[in-house]
Design brief:
The chain is α+β, with helices and mostly antiparallel strands and 174 residues long. It is 30% helix and 25% strand.
């Protein structure tokens, strides 16, 4: 497999993820019925994209809960966390309220999975996204990515290490 490819345990299909060092695909997605968020809204600061298969699944709830608990850590790096799944805005609203989440959940609902496809993490066979993480720098370049098996919570260690590495590189350049 190439460096940009991954194969999930439940599929024999090799997929290609958007690689580190490339510009992150731009997007605008709804976060509420009347508000949208664009990747460009966060130009100049790091962005963490957390693609997850579906609201209400136990692993997704745990994963988003971990990130919610660590928001102060993400903010220490001035990083914006964005959760993305193919669920609709009303489902996201109920899920975020139930889990007391304090970061945007974006609906990659219609056309279904368009943004996930652009990042190489849409699961055609299931109609959901992979459990995939991307850390994007302030210039819009992907600095780190990871695809976890759908049934495994990847936690936040990789994200925090990537943010720390980016901060360290910024301090060296200054």
């Amino acid at each position: 497999m190439s460096e940009n490819a991954y194969r999930t345990p439940d599929s024999d299909t090799e997929r290609s993820i958007v690689s580190v060092g490339t510009e992150a695909p731009a997007f605008t997605l709804p976060t509420t019925p009347d508000q949208s968020v664009s990747l460009d809204d966060f130009r100049g600061q790091p962005v963490v994209l957390a693609f997850y298969p579906a609201d209400w699944s136990p692993v997704c709830g745990d994963q988003m809960g971990v990130y919610n608990e660590l928001l102060a850590e993400f903010q220490r790096y001035d990083a914006q966390l964005l959760g993305i799944s193919v669920d609709g805005v009303w489902c996201h609203d109920a899920f975020a309220a139930d889990r007391n989440l304090h970061f945007p959940l974006l609906a990659d609902f219609e056309p279904k999975g368009e943004v996930a496809r652009a990042y190489g993490v849409y699961r055609d066979d299931a109609g959901t996204t992979e459990r995939a993480l991307f850390v994007i720098d302030g210039e819009g370049v992907i600095q780190w990515n990871h695809v976890s098996p759908v049934g495994v919570n990847p936690g936040a260690n990789g994200i925090l290490t990537a943010l720390d590495d980016m901060q360290g590189e910024g301090e060296e350049a200054a």
